[in-house]
Specification:
There is one protein chain. By secondary structure, the protein is mainly alpha-helical. Helix content is 56%, strand content 3%. The chain contains three helices and two strands, in the order H-H-H-E-E. The chain has a two-stranded antiparallel sheet. Helix 1 (5-21) crosses helix 2 (29-54) and helix 2 (29-54) packs antiparallel against helix 3 (62-89). The longest helix is centred in the middle third of the chain and has 28 residues, at 62-89. The two termini are 34 Å apart.
Amino acid sequence: MKKYLLPLSFLLMTPGAALAADGENALNGADTAYVAIAALLVLIMTPALGFFYGGLVRRKNTINTIMMPMICLAIFTVQWFLYGYSLSFGPDVGGIIGNLDCAFFKKVGMAAEQEYSETLPHILFP
């Protein structure tokens, strides 16, 4: 039982760390925890989909079917970090798409971005 206390305490203290990072913004710990847990569930769901479809194919295709969503998850994570976030949430160009000012999460931090949410850290918003 004691070996699970450290990871559990870390998960419970994560919203508190977001609140302590910036005292002037009114970050909400419950909002932060909810969005973080939702993002974690989506992250877990992607490989689980591979295992689900892996059970529906023949034995010789199982590894390939399981690895395809995991490889896609890795590629999409790198693309989101490099330029996807900036094109989605960066300053807009003609009201259609964002520019590359936030590429590599350059201007993204623990402070709340008033344009998107007043109670969530900017890094956790999407």
